[in-house]
């Protein structure tokens, strides 16, 4: 049996799946005492079930997202080696930043040597200011990590207790500013995240659950809980990923759909294209800071069931703020939920109070409550529909760097609008009508997130970059760099090497035997020609374990494997 | 029209090359990609990246006479490169961006009006296609094109040589020392567009200081005086001190300064083949300059600023040239054009054009109608010898977008006449920019093709 648990900001949802069927589900408020919350949810779904039968538990959590949003993380100092390029004035962060000499170019060659005196001075200054954690990041460090490692060694010599995080180990993709932020946040949240992991382990232990434990990442893949300690930031935004996977599990395979998760104050949108959740082309943005964290393409729209509705002059406006519950549930002001209540599209709250709320808006305009309710819902529907169209448009507008990529661009529109979350029921049919799609509210919609967590697959990726002229290669995800042993080294060998690393990485994460198909998602080979002679090759290969979900989940009947 | 953002289309065409070891190959913008990605400039709020789009064959036919037809001269990569320029043009006119950078391959500034093949790595002229597109689509007239490639922008010059509403300025390494061997101070435009073409051939080896002397004392004042509605920079980067084909000594920062001063609406990448030592830095610097960002930290590894001292004798030569050209510009309306170009109803010139990539020798007889009320229509009798088979002879008629009715009528007569003559021309073309209609006649099949631009609202 599989367990999925989504620890959200307000609610913690849990489900127990047995052979593709939802055996039990629970929804409990998330309290400050995380351990108690987890135990409560687990106890509800495990009633009458033996803990030994649980093979697998997957958690998704907003814990890191909230830590970062609340800036409740540890102070981290920075030592950066940006070298030439953008103005160094850009590298200002809400902490102490020391910029030192040293530069590497795009092929990993040293352009400006490191200055160890500056390392000592920076370390001394940071230590003097009381920092215990330092992020060390260099431009192009993923092409050559020597400078970062030299800084690390030097600092460890002088300050053995200083915790250091190196950019090339955290984020190997190109984009220095994102690497800086990702390294900084990793360094800042590691300790607090460890506390979360220990609470989870304690809860499971107390209930005698001994199966494999995973954590959901923002890209919809899972990591073993213990391994996730290395990359706490990857767990940000796993909530939306959980809902999206949940929808994927609850709807027929291969469909192109929009997932609409309408909450109290925000509506999260995600796309499933031909049955696969769409990944964002760039890393997630956390607290206004762009990072390298791979995430599903999720758009958060600041409108929800509890948004404040007001009349301004002759106009009705839906604001992005929430000032408490909907009027029909005893709140202070009219909301879209009141409109739905009046139209009979929800059973929440008191219909008389809802009518009263609509009348306060409609009376000065001479509009009956029903008419006001209609207008309010259309406003919400229109806002969300426009954002959905915008998402598809932006997806079509993704840059393309090859002729074939430009030529194969096509217009895709969704077939279905799938609603999950509390406020979904009332709006989804109207959103679907507006977009010319079929509305779907899947069974178990309120706990789709927990279902998504339960069926998420472990995902691992390996990106190999080889420069045969210089005879070096690197594995982006591992921060590993070494010399090429084999000569000549061609595309086939590169692919083999990448696959070996994938297997090695899987073994390290305790995932061997469960890899599924290996997909090659990138295969670039560039001949390097100097003076009309080919002097080497630049090879980029990305391999990953199969993406997707373990099971589809059925309302009745039997579950079916993909 | 000008708001804050800079549009970028990066189209490195990683799957397109002229041939595997040709300078114009897949690898060319690879390191530029690495640099731009690693710097994170695409995350800057002042820069917005667009997906490229394809230009239509009609947009090309409006500018070029492609022999035998457009489809036989272009690959999809060409359509994308030109389409990127027009897309950015649209975005500037609809107010989404203030300026743009078409960081695209393949280049185009050696492509002339008649296209028999590839010359100087170019098949179609991205800037010229943009100009005629903008005139059609957005109703502008006056455009300035400044070509900062180390090679003379002879294609662009050829296309606009008789167009009084296009100012074309090219500074480049002296044609006696580099391809294509043209671009001298005496090439000043035809009788209807005198001094709208200005060439500054620079002695090899000169650096940023002289570069900016030319920019400050000639390029900027002339462009300002011309009052263009749209400024294009043909942003070739082979004046860089590390370029393998050129012998100039400009730096990335020199290019960025120039971009800031010229403040073009659109920069379009042309040449530049120091793919490791120059392009990553020059492209970054130009992009930052367009976006109004600080580029003073961009520095190529090999650059020691004090390394280059321009030879005083050569600098003096450039200064004299600038003075002379400035006076040509200032007195352009007072000169006796008959004295220079002769009198009569037509001005004609013969041209020998060599296609270095495709080994084609072309001979042209170009005639311009000297018309008092419009720039006059142009006819070209072109004969291309590929070194095998019979030379291909074609006849082309081009009617400018601001043509008068009389010229338009005469032009169609010339087109019909060329169709009639039994033996001479395998293909006859008509390009009427005033009605946005292009015709092509194939003698062997006795068939005519028509292409028309989109009607209003399309």
TrEMBL record, chain A:
One of its GO terms (biological process) is glutathione metabolic process. SUPFAM superfamilies: Actin-like ATPase domain (SSF53067). Residues 179-459 form the Hydantoinase A/oxoprolinase domain. Residues 3-155 form the Hydantoinase/oxoprolinase N-terminal domain. One of its GO terms (molecular function) is 5-oxoprolinase (ATP-hydrolyzing) activity. It comes from the Bacteria. InterPro entries: ATPase_NBD, Hydant_A_N, Hydantoinase_A, Oxoprolinase-like. Pfam families: Hydant_A_N (PF05378), Hydantoinase_A (PF01968). One of its GO terms (cellular component) is cytosol. This is Hydantoinase. It comes from Desulfotomaculum copahuensis. The lineage of its organism: Bacteria, Bacillati, Bacillota, Clostridia, Eubacteriales.
């Amino acid at each position: 049996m599989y367990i999925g648990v989504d620890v959200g900001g307000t609610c913690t949802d849990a489900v127990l799946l047995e052979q593709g069927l939802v055996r039990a589900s629970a929804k409990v408020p998330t309290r400050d005492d995380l351990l108690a919350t987890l135990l409560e949810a687990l106890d509800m779904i495990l009633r009458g079930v033996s803990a030994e039968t649980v093979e697998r538990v997957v958690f998704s959590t907003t814990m890191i997202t909230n830590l970062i949003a609340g800036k409740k993380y540890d102070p981290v100092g920075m030592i950066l080696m940006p070298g030439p390029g953008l103005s160094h004035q850009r590298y200002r962060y809400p902490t102490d930043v020391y910029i030192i000499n040293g530069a590497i170019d795009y092929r990993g060659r040293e352009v400006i040597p490191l200055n160890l005196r500056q390392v000592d001075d920076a370390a001394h200054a940071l230590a003097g200011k009381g920092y215990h954690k330092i992020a060390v990041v260099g431009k192009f460090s993923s092409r050559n990590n020597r400078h970062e490692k030299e800084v690390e060694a030097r600092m460890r010599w002088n300050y053995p207790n200083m915790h250091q995080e190196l950019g090339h180990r955290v984020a190997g993709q190109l984009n220095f500013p994102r690497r800086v932020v990702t390294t900084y946040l990793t360094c800042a949240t590691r300790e607090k995240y460890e506390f979360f992991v220990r609470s989870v382990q304690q809860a499971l232990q107390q209930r005698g659950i001994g199966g494999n434990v995973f954590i959901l990442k923002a890209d919809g893949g899972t990591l073993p809980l213990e391994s996730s300690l290395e990359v706490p930031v990857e767990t940000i935004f796993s909530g939306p990923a959980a809902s999206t996977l949940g929808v994927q599990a609850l709807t027929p395979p291969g469909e192109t759909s929009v997932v609409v998760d309408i909450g109290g104050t925000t509506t999260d949108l995600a796309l499933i294209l031909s049955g696969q959740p769409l990944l964002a082309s760039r890393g997630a943005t956390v607290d206004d800071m762009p990072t390298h964290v791979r995430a599903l393409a999720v758009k958060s729209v600041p409108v929800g069931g509890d948004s404040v509705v007001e009349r301004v002059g002759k106009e009705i406006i839906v604001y992005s703020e929430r000032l408490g519950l909907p009027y029909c549930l005893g709140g202070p002001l009219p909301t879209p939920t009141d409109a739905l209540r009046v139209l009979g599209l929800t059973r929440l709250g008191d219909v008389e109070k809802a009518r009263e709320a609509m009348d306060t808006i409609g009376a000065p305009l001479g509009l009956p409550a029903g008419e006001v309710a209609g207008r309010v819902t259309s406003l919400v529907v229109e806002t969300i529909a426009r954002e959905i169209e915008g998402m598809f448009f932006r997806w079509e507008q993704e840059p393309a760097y090859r002729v074939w990529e430009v030529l194969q661009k096509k217009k895709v529109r969704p077939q279905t609008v799938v609603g999950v979350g509390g406020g979904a029921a009332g709006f989804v049919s109207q959103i679907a009508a507006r977009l010319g799609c079929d509305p779907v509210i899947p069974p178990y919609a309120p706990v789709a997130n927990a279902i998504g967590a339960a069926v998420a697959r472990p995902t691992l990726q390996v990106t190999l970059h080889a420069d045969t002229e210089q005879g070096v290669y690197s594995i982006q995800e591992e921060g590993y760099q070494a010399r090429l042993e084999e000569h000549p080294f061609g595309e086939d060998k590169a692919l083999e090497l990448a696959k070996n690393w994938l297997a090695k990485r899987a073994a390290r994460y305790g995932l061997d035997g469960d890899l599924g198909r290996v997909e090659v998602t990138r295969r670039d080979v560039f001949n390097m020609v100097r003076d009309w002679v080919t002097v080497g090759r630049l090879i980029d290969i990305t391999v990953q374990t199969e993406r997707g979900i373990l099971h589809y989940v059925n309302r009745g009947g039997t579950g079916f494997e993909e | 029209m000008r708001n804050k953002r800079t549009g970028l289309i990066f189209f490195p065409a990683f799957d397109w090359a002229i041939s595997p070891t040709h300078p114009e190959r897949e690898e060319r913008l690879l390191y530029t990609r690495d640099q731009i990605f690693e710097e994170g400039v695409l995350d800057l709020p002042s820069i917005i990246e667009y997906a490229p789009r394809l230009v239509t064959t009609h947009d090309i036919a409006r500018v070029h006479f492609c022999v035998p037809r457009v489809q036989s001269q272009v690959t999809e990569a060409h359509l994308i490169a030109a389409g990127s320029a027009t897309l950015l043009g649209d975005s500037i006119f609809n107010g989404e961006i203030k300026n743009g950078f078409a960081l695209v391959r393949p280049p185009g500034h050696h492509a002339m009006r008649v296209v028999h093949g590839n010359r100087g790595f170019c098949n179609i002229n991205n800037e010229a296609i943009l100009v005629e597109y903008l005139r059609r689509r957005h109703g502008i007239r006056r455009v300035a094109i400044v070509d900062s490639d180390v090679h003379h922008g002879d294609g662009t010059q050829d296309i606009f040589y008789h167009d009084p509403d296009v100012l074309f300025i090219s500074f480049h390494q002296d044609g006696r020392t580099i391809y294509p061997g043209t671009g001298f101070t005496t090439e000043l435009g035809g009788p209807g567009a005198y001094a709208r073409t200005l060439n500054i051939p620079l002695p090899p080896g000169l650096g940023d200081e002289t570069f900016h002397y030319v920019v400050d004392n000639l390029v900027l004042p002339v462009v300002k005086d011309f009052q263009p509605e749209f400024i294009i920079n043909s942003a070739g980067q082979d004046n860089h001190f590390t370029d393998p084909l050129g012998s100039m000594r400009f730096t990335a920062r020199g290019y960025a300064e120039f971009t800031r001063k010229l403040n073009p609406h659109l920069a379009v990448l042309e040449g530049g083949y120091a793919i490791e030592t120059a392009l990553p830095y020059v492209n970054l610097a130009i992009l930052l300059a367009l976006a109004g960002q600080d580029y003073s930290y961009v520095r190529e590894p090999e650059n020691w600023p004090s390394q280059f001292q321009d030879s005083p004798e050569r600098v003096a030569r450039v200064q004299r040239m600038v003075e002379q050209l400035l006076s040509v510009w200032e007195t352009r309306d007072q000169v006796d054009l008959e004295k220079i170009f002769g009198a009569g109803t037509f001005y004609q010139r013969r041209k020998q054009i060599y296609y270095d990539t495709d080994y084609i020798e072309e001979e042209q007889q170009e005639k311009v109608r000297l018309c008092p009320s419009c720039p006059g229509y142009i006819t070209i009798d072109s004969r291309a010898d590929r070194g095998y088979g019979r030379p291909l002879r074609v006849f082309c008629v081009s009617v400018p977008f601001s043509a008068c009715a009389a010229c338009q009528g005469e032009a169609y007569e010339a087109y019909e006449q060329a169709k009639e003559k039994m033996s001479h021309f395998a293909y006859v073309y008509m390009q009427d920019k005033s009605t946005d209609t292009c015709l092509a006649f194939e003698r062997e099949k006795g068939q005519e093709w028509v292409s028309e631009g989109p009607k209003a609202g399309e």
